[in-house]
Every structure is written in C-alpha cells, then in structure tokens.
Design a protein that fits this description.
This is Glycoside hydrolase family 3 C-terminal domain-containing protein. Keywords: Hydrolase, Signal. GO terms for molecular function: hydrolase activity. This protein has 989 residues and is an alpha+beta fold. It has a 6-stranded mixed beta sheet, sandwiched between helices. Strands 43, 45, 46, 48, 51 and 53 form a 6-stranded antiparallel beta sheet that branches. A 5-stranded mixed beta sheet has the order 34-42-41-36-37, with no helix packed on it. Helix 1 packs across helix 11, helix 4 packs parallel to helix 5 and helix 12 (374-387) packs across helix 18 (680-688). The radius of gyration is 30 Å and the shape is globular. It starts with a strand and ends with a strand.
C-alpha cells in the first residue's frame, strides 16, 4: 500500500512517526531505525547517541525508556520452561515486581519433553511457546518481555535435585539436542530477526538446592569439559539460544555470577552476539551469602568484566546497580568501554527482536489470538502422549475400549501446576480423560482414594470448622461434624500431608507471616514460594497434634512456634514450640480412601491407580528431595488395589525417578508421565487404550534404592560412578528404557570400520516392526572405548532417532556423528584428544537393551607420558582423595585446596631423573604444612618433602622447592599433603 505517512507501534511500545515511500522505507529520524543498514552500524548509531548514564541504566533487568530517542521500556526475564509461564510487572500495586501468571498452553514439564526423544516435536512445542509469548507481548510489552528464560539445560546428574522437573536428561548429548530444538522453536527461523530471545539456565553445574548459593560444585577438568559444558554448547553453537543465565552456585570456589567462563568459554562457541544475565539476586549474593567481594561496587564490576551483561537484582529497583556501576567507573574498576561492550550486546538482542524496525520486524503481527489456539491444544495432547513412558507391561495394556474401569488415586481427579508453569486454560484429569475415551462403551468409577476426616478437640469436644466460598479462618467451634468440618487428607510422603476442605474444595494454608497467624481454607492447590499448606500429624497416645511444616525458615524469622493451638476466640494459631503444648485432636474418619478404592477396584474389569508427586511439595526450587520413594500412603494404596484386582495399572505422575521396586515386581503394568499439562488426562487415556502407542524413553537412570546414590553435593560423576555413564550397579530401569505395544527387530548394522579424528562415524541399521501394531521406536547408538589411558564411560549416547515403523514393515535408519565426539579431555596437555583406539558401537532400544554391536577403529593419537618438567596445574590430576577444588584468584584459574592426609595422583610420568620439586602454593593459616612427593602409591617411596610456609592469604602465592631422590623412569607420582595448602601448579625436574 502506498502511503505518505504512517504511525507504527514498536515492539517496546514506543510510538514513532516515520516517512515511507513506495517499495522501501526511507531514512527515519535516526539512522538506528533504518532496517536497511547493517546491524552493527545501527547499534553503533544508537550506542553513540546514548549518554553514559543512559547506558548504565540499561544494565539492569528493568531497562527504562529513553524518551528523547523514542525508545521504550525493555525488561528481561519472561519464564517459559514448558509453555509461557509468568513474568513480573513494573506497574503492579502495591508492590512493583509482583508476578503475573499467563493463562497459556501448558505442555509437559521439561523432563517430560525430554522423554519424547523427538527433536521435531520439541521444536514445534518451542515454536508454540514463542508464538504465545509474542501474543502476550503484543498486549502488554512492559510485562511480557521477549527475552525468555528457558530452556533449563542443567544435567539431571542427581534425581534428588529439587528442580529435576526443569531439566531434560542426565546425558549431555540428549540434553543438547532437546534444548536446541526447544530454543530453536522459540527463536524462530528468520536468518536475522528473533521471534523471542531464549536464555539457557543455569550456567554451570547447578544440580543441588541445599545451600545453593554457598555450595561449590567441584568440577575436575574432565567432568567440566566432557559433561557439564557439553549440555550448554549445542544450543549456543547452533545459534538457537541468545545467551546464558549464571547459576547461583560456585564452581571450584568461584561464584558463577562473576565467573569469566561467560566470556572465555560460552562466547567462544559462537560468532553471534550473546546477552548473558545473572540469576535473580545473584549480584547481591557476592557481597552477602558468598562474601566474595567486600562491596557491591567491586562485585558488580567483576560481574560485568566476567561477561554478564544484565543484572537481575533488587526487583524493579535499579538504583543499587546503577549507583555501584557509576562508582566502579569513578574508581577505575570499570572503563566506559566495559559498559559499552555490555550495552552493545543488550542492544543487539533488542534490534534482532525487531524493536527498532519501523514495522516491529517479521514477528510483530502475532497477537493474543495465537494463545491457546486449537492447534496448540492438539499439540499439547500430542506432546503429552509422546512423553509418556511405559515402564512395564505384562499384557494388561492396552485396555479394551469397553467395560468397567476403576480410576483411583490422589492424582486421579486433579492436575497440578509447578513453580514455572503457566495457568492452564482448561484441565483434563486422568479420570475425566479415561471416562471420555470409554464414552458409552463403559463405566468409570473411583475417586481420589484419600481419607476424609474430622478433627475433634480433646479439650472441648468441638470440631475444627472451615468457611465456604473463599474460605475463612479455621476455628474449633463446630458442635458436630458436617461438610464444613470435613477435610480430605493427601499424603505426600515422610509424614507430610495437605488438608483440603470439603466446604469449598480449597486447601488449608497459613494465613500470613505473623507469629500467631491463623489458618484459612483458601488455596486452590499447594502453591507459592513458601508452600504454607504443609502439615504433619503426630501421634500422642489416643490423639494427634498438628505441626505446621511449611517453609522452614519462616520460623527462624518469627519465632519457634510451629505446633497448632487454639486461641481464646477458638481460631487455630501457631502457639507452641513443641507437641507438649499443642492442641490435641481425635481424628474421626468420615470415609476411608483405601476402602473406597478397594471397593471400586473389586467391582471393575481393570483398576488404574494414579499416584505421584505434588510439584510444590515433593522437591522444587530451593528444596531437594531426601528420598525417591513413593509416599507411604500411595504405596499402601497400590498394594491394596492390586490385592483387590490383579488387573491393575499404576500411573505414576511425577517429575523424577522413583524407587518402584515393589511395584515393578508385583504390578502388571506401570506407566510414567511427568505433570504433563492441560491434556494430561486425554494423553494418559490415549496410551492406556492404545490410541497412542507409547514410545517415550527415560532420560535418567531409575535406581532401586536411595542407597545407590552418593552425596548430592558430589559432582565428580567419574569417581563417584554416577549416571548411566559410570554407574556399576543394577538399575531398576536403565537410561533410555521404555516399552511399546509393538515389537522391533534390528538387523546387523553397517558401521564405518575405520575413521580419522576429523571424520564421521556412520551407522545404518534396518529396524523391522514384527508386530501387528504401528509404532515408534527410538533407535539409540552408544559407544564404548575399549582401551584408553583414562577411565572411560561404560557406554555413551552418540546418536538417536525416533522413527515410525508401520506394522510388518522395515525402516532403514541412518545415524552419524563426528569422530571428534569420541574424544575426551586430556589432562596431561589440557586439550581434547581422540585416542587411537577401538570403540564398540552399540545399537539398541536403551542403554541396557543392546540389540546389535559392531566396532570402529579410530586412527587417533596416543597420549604420551606426562612431562612434569613443564608447569603442571594441580587440578590436572588423574585421581585424588579428600581435596577440594578452589579458585586460584578471584578472576581466573583453578587450584587444589588440600588438607592433612589428602593426596593427588599423576599417572604415567616420564621423570627422567628428576631432582627438584617446585610448587606454587598458598597457605592462609599460620605455621607450616608439607607436600610429600611419593611414588606409585600414597604410602609409597618418599622422594622428598616441600615445606609450605604461611603466605597469610589464600590468594597470596609463593614458591616452595625440595630436593627429591630416586625419581626416575615412568612412574605414578603422588603428592601427599600434611596440612592446609592451596596448590596452583608444580614441576618435577
């Protein structure tokens, strides 16, 4: 359309009048708004127009408008983990920064998306999320920013991690493929513009919540390079993601909020400009819980120089950030060029989002009409079905599409959201989905199988009474037990229960933070950061006392009372620090959940027991799990229903591996799903009745017992033998496991026989569906290096493909991977190496279900003997006992922190008649310590001892030397410490 003048709304909400001419937009008022210019020239123009104060203001998460240039407000950080979730509102009252939750398509949790092993499907999901983010942005760009904080690519190293639901897999290759697909979908396919700007969380090695801002993840070089980094690299290297978020934790003693890896490592993976951000409050931790820097000025200067560009801190108050940056500039800790560099990166993303284009860019036309579209509803159902994993099936499934089915269990009639979930537009529960599938061809009975109780005061004989409607403070005033006195008791394990009021279907929660705050039946589900809906019942003879077990630190803030008592007006309050002073109640059972479930199951052709977790209770952000077991009440329910009806199917709906040892041995069929969003019930029904042939695969090892795991704080997967890569035990279900209603045969694979380090390994295999049912098979290729200088994984995933194979047909599956992927980190030379070796190529249906094996000979190199005459970093050891990894300086470098009795092993060293041991060391403690040089064993031949004097500070290094004797030939060298020492590097020559 030919017009002389138009008014456009930019992506940031700024109205700009421009001129237009036929065929091409003419020059705008400022050159940075001219889309005909190269991106770098546009950034140069805008950067040159900004004052220093304006540039500094853009470093905070809430970037203010620059009215004189017609630039609108911009904010980072819209959550979009498995659908558009929530954001914060600068205009909200009474407190700016309050969370707004989007009602948008809710897909399966990330761990469920990973279990699809389907990169194309996940890309479709990512596209839908990006489109819905654009839709919300069109309605309110101040709240719904286009910098999306997703996906989470932290590896699921330990299934007890509270945030297990947020990650994809324990394997870096699978995580990289799925995260790249999701991010690519959100980003869009335009070569220059972005639909949204995905940010990977949380760099690096963030897999525990206990003391998460104070614990240090010890990453020896092999683990760091071969494991943790490899999960982040693919989405960055393929330009699917536009930056990373720094993790809260420390790595080798240095907080990730100020870690130079953001520049030195992450930016080395791509030529594209990245915008890296801190996690919420991370900058303040540097001077708070971590005490790493003495002032915010020094901490923020270090953060900026380390490669973090946007400060997520102090909610909407940018004042502390901008003041500290200006102070750092004045003190010479920062130069204006440091600010310019970060602002350039921020502006690059804003330009690519189309904000400064006259028409808002190619994605500006997306509106709220795209949210919760019919297509997205169909996609949500398809994703939830594809994510389900059939763990066991002794022929019970698929269920016939007729007859009587009892659907029971605490998750049968509800769907739960999690901390990073949006609001579901609608909810199809498991029982509703099964009932809809059966329709008039069958009947569905059952219920939640939880006890309904009334609580009668021992002292007064009156009952705890709740309110109707929006609820009311609970009070011990009921003369008899009716609907307002009834509560449904949901057990979540280890004694924790939630109480849902029968009066209004709402959960009982603590009402506020006061020292004598009461309780009200108000919560639609257990929720919020503090999860005020948790209680335990403690037996005291013939009665019980009720303990509030919400977020632990609440009591630290406001006093010791966490047992319920009765106030003078009859209301329930927190009034006692112990059970002795608590109010006593008799629990009167109105109806038994187990009895009801058994009755329904006894009268049914099949029973479906839906058990699992409550995402705000059974592990979540800031709370790790201490067990992988099912809740005790749920386990008892499964056993009772199975005894009543052997034709029992257990559906486990949770976010992590579970120790289903009894269930695997006794129950004929087990299906796992994550909390899979609005279409959960339909998807479960699709799988149970065979409308969807299950093909989901586990992305983590499922262990038989909690005892199979070491400390959650042990990050050395090699030495601790963690994940399927190194685990030597017998798992309950192996990585990659999942069953189908089809059966598949594998032909003999054709594999590249010989390859150089820069070549490609190609695997071709024919997969035949030998059943009468069309199905998907996830073909998995693993390798195992037969011989190496260094310990290697038992097997490692190299390639996979989810393929559809019609009944009776054969598909030829072609997979390949670069030979360089067979390399590992050589600690003797500090670089990647592809060794000369034979690798077994294992092709099959899981890491344990290997159908065929071949081999490939790799013409790589042989790692030479160590040359300790050259400076060797202490962290480049081959083995160790007792040491910690620490920071050499606050800026860069890793060192070893050792104590008395700790040791390091350096294997296969060519000593060539060494005579002198020299080490760069630090010791903050007074007095002296020693480093013994021993051969072949920690208690082996003593060649010499170096004395380490106090240097007064952990960062003050000095050189110590010692004469050594008998050090010759090719030997293993052990450094054994006799006191507190930091070892940076050493030589032996």
């Amino acid at each position: 359309m030919s017009i002389s003048r138009r008014v456009f709304l930019t992506a940031a909400g700024a109205v700009t009048a421009i001129s237009a001419a036929p065929g091409i937009a003419t020059a705008t008022r400022h050159r940075f708004r001219d889309p005909r210019l190269p991106l770098e020239r546009r950034i140069d123009d805008l950067l040159g127009r900004l004052t220093l104060d304006e540039k500094v203001s853009l470093l905070h998460q809430y970037q203010p408008p620059v009215p004189r240039l017609g630039i609108g407000r911009f904010k980072t950080g819209t959550e979009a983990l498995h659908g558009l979730a929530w954001s914060t509102d600068i205009h909200s009252t009474p407190e700016p920064g309050a969370v707004r939750t989007a009602t948008a398509t809710v897909f399966p949790q990330a761990v469920g998306l990973g279990s699809t092993w389907d990169r194309e499907l996940i890309r479709e999901v990512g596209t839908a999320v990006g489109v819905e983010a654009r839709g919300y942005h069109s309605a309110n760009p101040d709240v719904w920013g286009l910098n999306l904080w997703a996906p989470v690519v932290n590896l699921l190293r330990d299934p007890r991690w509270g945030r297990n639901e947020e990650g994809y897999a324990e394997d870096p290759h699978l995580t990289g493929v799925i995260s790249t697909a999701y991010a690519r979908g959100m980003r869009g396919d335009h070569p220059h513009h972005l639909r949204t700007a995905p940010t990977l969380k949380h760099y690096l090695a963030n897999n525990n919540e206990i003391r998460r801002d104070r614990t240090s993840s010890n990453l020896r070089p092999r683990v760091k390079h071969e494991y943790d980094e490899l999960a982040f690299r693919p989405a960055i290297a393929s330009d699917a993601a536009t930056g990373v978020m720094a993790a809260y934790n420390l790595v080798n003693g240095r907080p990730m909020t100020a870690h130079a890896d953001h520049d030195d490592v992450v930016r080395s993976w791509t030529d594209q400009t990245l915008m890296n951000v801190t996690d919420a409050g991370g900058p303040n931790n540097l001077i708070g819980s971590q005490a790493y820097y003495p002032t915010l000025t020094e901490g923020n200067a270090a953060t900026l120089k380390a490669g973090l560009d946007s400060f997520t801190v102090d909610n909407t108050d940018a004042g502390p950030t901008t003041a500290s940056v200006r102070a750092a500039l004045a003190a010479g800790l920062l130069a204006e060029s440091d600010v310019d560099r970060a602002v350039r990166r921020i502006l690059s993303i804003r330009f690519r989002l189309g904000e400064f284009d006259p028409d808002g860019g190619p994605y500006a036309g997306i509106t709220m009409d795209a949210v919760d579209s019919p297509a997205h509803r169909r996609l949500a159902r398809r994703a939830a079905g594809a994510a389900a994993v059939l763990l066991k099936n002794d022929g019970v499934l698929p269920l016939p599409a007729h007859g009587r089915v009892a659907v029971v269990g605490p998750l049968a009639d509800t769907l739960y959201t999690d901390w990073y979930s949006g609001g579901m537009p609608y909810r199809v529960t498991p029982r509703a989905g099964i009932a809809a599938r059966l329709g008039e061809h069958g009947t569905v009975t059952g219920g939640e199988a939880v006890d309904r109780v009334a609580l009668r005061s021992v002292d007064t004989g009156r009952y705890v009474t709740a309110g109707v409607g929006e609820g009311a403070p609970l009070a011990v005033t009921g003369a008899s037990a009716g609907t307002t006195e009834w509560f449904d008791v949901f057990g979540w394990g280890q004694g924790v229960v939630t109480l849902r009021s029968a009066a209004n279907g709402r959960y009982v929660e603590r009402d506020g933070f006061g020292a004598t705050s009461g309780f009200v039946n108000r919560a639609p589900q257990p929720r919020d950061w503090f999860v005020h809906q948790q209680f335990t019942f403690e037996d005291v003879g013939a009665a019980v006392v009720v303990k509030y077990v919400g977020y632990e630190t609440v009591n630290d803030w406001e006093g010791p009372n966490n047992y319920l008592t009765v106030a003078a007006d009859g209301t329930l309050v927190l009034g006692s620090p112990d059970a002795a002073g608590a109010a006593r109640f008799v629990v009167e059972t109105v109806s038994s959940g187990v009895d009801g479930a058994v009755a329904a199951a006894s009268d049914a052709d099949a029973a479906v027991v839906v058990v699992g977790s409550m995402p705000f209770i059974n592990g979540r952000e800031d709370h790790d799990r201490t067990t992988m077991a099912l809740a005790e009440s749920q386990s008892a329910l499964v056993r009772a229903v199975h005894a009543a009806n052997p034709n029992t199917v257990v559906v486990v709906e949770n976010s992590y591996p579970t120790t289903l040892t009894w269930e695997q041995e006794h129950v004929p069929a087990i299906l796992w799903t994550s909390h899979a969003g609005q279409e959960t019930g339909n998807a479960i029904a699709d799988v149970l009745f065979g409308d969807v042939n299950p093909a989901g695969r586990l992305t983590q090892t499922w262990y038989r017992s909690d005892d199979d795991l070491p400390s959650i704080l042990d990050y050395d997967i090699i030495k601790a033998r963690r994940t399927y890569l190194y685990f030597d035990g017998d798992p309950l279900y192996p990585f990659g496991h999942g069953l189908s209603y089809s059966t598949f045969d594998y032909g003999r694979p054709r594999v590249t026989e010989h390859v150089g380090p820069h070549g490609t390994v190609r695997v071709t295999v024919e997969v035949t569906n030998t059943s009468g049912v069309d199905g998907d098979e996830v073909v998995q290729v693993y390798t195992r290096q037969r011989e190496s200088r260094n310990p290697q994984p038992r097997r490692r995933l190299r390639a996979f493909e989810r393929v559809h194979v019609p009944a009776g047909r054969t598909r030829t599956v072609r997979l390949s991977f670069p030979a360089r992927d067979l390399g590992h980190w050589d600690v003797t030379r500090g670089r990647w190496v592809v060794e000369r070796a034979t690798h077994d190529v294992l092709v099959g249906a899981s890491s344990a279900d290997v159908r065929r094996r071949e081999s490939v000979r790799v013409h790589g190199e042989t790692i030479p003997a160590r040359d300790l005459s050259r400076p060797t970093r202490g962290v480049d050891f081959d083995d160790y006992a007792g040491v910690e990894l620490v920071d050499t300086s606050k800026e860069r470098g890793d060192a070893v922190g050792a104590g008395a009795g700790d040791w390091l092993r350096f294997a296969d060293c060519d000593l060539d008649r060494a005579e002198t041991f020299t080490a760069r060391v630090a010791r903050a403690e007074p007095g002296t310590a020693g480093i013994e040089v021993r051969l072949d064993d920690p208690a082996g031949q003593l060649a010499g001892t170096a004395v380490v004097e106090s240097t007064g500070d952990v960062y003050a290094y000095a050189t110590t030397t010692a004469r050594v004797r008998g050090v010759r030939g090719r030997r293993d060298v052990y450094l054994v410490f006799t006191g507190q020492v930091r070892l940076d590097s050493f030589t032996l020559r």
